[in-house]
């Protein structure tokens, strides 16, 4: 069973790294975009499940950290498509809250664990754990806050979908980097995907927001892209 989970985990990871860029470059909202996006989502779902089992059996803490961190972002990005009326206070379900609480608990645990590692002279691992743990807590907090105080922007679901799906992809690339790109310095294996990806997310969301705020409809702008 462990061998099957390991190989299927690797296969799902490879597929996710292929289909995510395909979903980014095709026309947003089109059949191809939806197809690649769904494949990416279900691959990430299996990656998370298999990683939880493998990391527990073999005790690989950072595999568990990345699995929870990345899947929550993908889950939020996917669910955003079903919460297009969130700005009106509609669309939030009990399982949106449940996933948020679970992810928040995991990330808080890793943040505390990171501090413990730093205190016990394992600074490099400790800073990674606290960094990802704090980032995960921040993502969860901002998401749950939106459920209590809905955003006013009617296109918020679109920005959430784009940012979180790409955030999940960055985490997936991070996992790939730590396993394959061992020629990089230890810390850089973990942080270069975020250093490259996060500014791109900010740039693309800002570009879409500026265009949409100028009066262009979402359909018009997507077709232009």
Q: How would you sum up this structure, described in words?
A:
- This protein has 225 residues and is mainly α.
- The chain has one domain.
- Helix content is 81%, strand content 0%.
- α1 packs across α6 (156-180) and α3 (61-79) runs parallel beside α5.
- The chain is globular and about 55 Å long.
Summary, kept brief:
With 225 residues, the protein is mainly α. Helices cover 81% and strands 0% of the residues.
Features:
225 residues, 8 helices, 81% helix, globular, mainly alpha, single chain
Largest sheet: none
The parts where pLDDT drops under 50 for at least 5 residues are: none
N-to-C CA distance? 44 Å
Quote the average pLDDT.
87
The total tally of domains equals 1
> What's the helix-strand series?
HHHHHHHH
Task: Explain the layout of strands and helices.
Elements: H1 2-25, H2 31-58, H3 61-79, H4 94-119, H5 123-148, H6 156-180, H7 186-213, H8 218-224
Helix pairs in contact: 1-2, 1-6, 2-3, 3-4, 3-5, 3-6, 4-5, 6-7
């Amino acid at each position: 069973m462990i061998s099957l989970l390991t190989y299927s985990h690797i296969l799902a990871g490879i597929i996710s790294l292929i289909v995510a860029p395909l979903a980014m470059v095709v026309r947003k909202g089109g059949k191809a975009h939806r197809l690649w996006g769904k494949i990416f989502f279900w691959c990430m779902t299996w990656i998370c499940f298999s990683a939880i089992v493998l990391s527990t059996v073999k005790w690989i803490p950072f595999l568990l950290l990345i699995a929870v961190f990345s899947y929550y972002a993908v889950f939020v990005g996917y669910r955003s498509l079903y919460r297009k009326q969130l700005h009106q206070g509609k669309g939030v379900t009990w399982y949106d809250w449940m996933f948020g609480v679970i992810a928040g608990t995991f990330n808080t645990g890793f943040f505390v664990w990171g501090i413990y590692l730093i205190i016990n002279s394992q600074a490099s691992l400790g800073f990674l754990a606290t960094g990802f743990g704090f980032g995960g807590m921040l993502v969860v907090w901002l998401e749950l806050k939106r459920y209590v105080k809905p955003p006013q922007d009617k296109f918020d679901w679109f920005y959430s979908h784009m940012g979180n799906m790409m955030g999940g992809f960055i985490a997936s690339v991070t996992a790939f980097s730590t396993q394959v790109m061992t020629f990089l310095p230890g810390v850089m294996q973990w942080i270069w995907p975020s250093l490259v990806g996060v500014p791109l997310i900010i740039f693309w969301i800002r570009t879409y927001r500026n265009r949409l705020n100028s009066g262009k409809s979402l359909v018009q702008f997507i077709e232009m892209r």
